[in-house]
Design brief:
alpha+beta; 4-stranded antiparallel sheet; two-stranded antiparallel sheet; 11 helices; about 50% helix; elongated
């Protein structure tokens, strides 16, 4: 049995507490990645902030960095020497006016490889954190797994139409080998309406089939609606030899990395399906949905909450890698262009790109909040 947190998290105050704990933890590690690599690269750091807005409490260390906790706990930032604001927008005029020895301490005046490593360190820190969380879960509590054996086939389902039979052992999907029933579910769930070439083992011989998952809407135990692809096969504890596997530390790290990669792939597949019109975009949520899910997962126990935090950490890393100015991915895109051109984009182009990036980020936030509002009303 999982250890419980001991207090209720499904009410509004509990959800807010769980959300703040999760998001603050993830943001801290993200910004810590930027901070540590910048320090290693000799870039001066003016501020390390957890949250935005007015400062609640803070202190300045011996390196001149102001560590502070701010009033709006919905993010954070590291402000470098030579930055115009918390979004790491360079103060081009101020940096150009500095003497060379001072300019070398600014972010914008640092070598291209130093800027690239510093920016990439934030998302990488989120991925490493997710891997570490998963590794601890898998080594301490273990993971429930079952073999990819068909226990039951739902009548009139895509699986029944494709000729899948109880007792079939699912060996590969579109040529990719599968080792667990969860791997089958994960692959199928993000491919509604997409034909899947399935190879099963039946009576000791391989059988090739084609199945087209249907798109269905399910609800979890909290009533949250999810749109998924399903083929109509059921794995039972007996047929799949259900068991809990625990891993040694090094193996657990490898499994944690694999689990994080599965989340990346599933996210990419979902976005692809949205643009292809196979799935709705209503699964994109904002702070309200994240807070609700944080409270729900916390109510289930430490393991469920930690698993949610790991998934959220991967999501934070992926979001920041979007090639949008203001985000880490936008900065990395600028650096890639600079590497190809041999010089950075003009100040005018970068300023214009930052405005476009701000608009896109705000538009996404509005869309996510709209989804949150409609979801709660529904």
């Amino acid at each position: 049995m999982e250890p419980e947190l001991g207090i209720g998290f499904t009410n509004a105050p509990g959800m807010i507490v769980a959300f703040l704990v999760a998001i603050s933890f993830l943001v801290f590690f993200h910004e810590l990645g930027h901070y540590l690599v910048a320090r290693w690269c000799g870039i001066r750091i003016l501020a390390f902030s957890l949250g935005f807005g007015p400062e609640i409490v803070g202190r300045t260390d011996k390196h001149g960095t102001r560590w502070k906790l701010c009033a709006i706990p919905l993010g954070g930032y590291v402000r470098f020497y030579g930055d115009e604001d918390a979004a790491s927008r360079p103060d081009f005029a101020g940096v150009d006016a500095m003497p060379p020895e001072e300019r070398a301490k600014t972010f914008n005046g640092a070598a291209l490889w130093k800027r690239t490593l510093t920016v990439a360190a934030g998302p990488i820190a989120n991925f490493l954190l997710a891997i570490a969380i998963f590794a601890v879960i898998f080594s301490v509590y273990g993971r429930g797994v079952s073999d990819p054996v068909v226990g039951e086939v739902v009548a009139d389902s895509p699986a029944a139409e494709a000729g899948i039979q109880p007792g079939d052992i699912m060996m590969s999907l579109d040529g990719q080998k599968v080792g667990t029933f969860d791997a089958v579910v994960r692959y199928v769930s993000v491919r509604p309406g997409v034909p899947i070439h399935l190879t099963v083992e039946r009576d000791g011989a391989p059988v090739d089939l084609t199945v087209v998952p249907e798109r269905i809407e399910e609800q979890d135990q909290f009533g949250n609606a999810m749109e998924l692809g399903r083929i109509g096969v059921v794995g039972t504890r007996d047929s799949g030899n259900f068991r809990v596997e625990r891993y040694q530390p090094l193996e657990a790290i490898g499994q944690g990395a694999l689990q994080s990669w599965h989340i990346v792939v599933s996210t990419y597949d979902y976005i692809t399906n949205v643009f292809a019109g196979r799935m709705k975009a209503d699964q994109i949520g904002g702070p309200v949905r994240v807070a609700t899910m944080a409270g729900q997962m916390a109510s289930l126990g430490i393991v469920a909450f930690a698993n949610f935090a790991a998934i959220l950490s991967v999501s934070v890393g992926l979001f920041n890698l979007l090639p949008v100015p203001m985000l880490d991915g936008g900065h990395l895109l600028f650096y890639a262009i600079e590497a190809v051109r041999g010089r950075p984009l003009s100040v005018r182009v970068q300023e214009f790109a930052f405005r476009i990036g701000l608009f896109l980020v705000l538009a996404l936030m509005v869309f996510a909040t709209w989804n949150d509002t409609i979801g709660r009303m529904g």
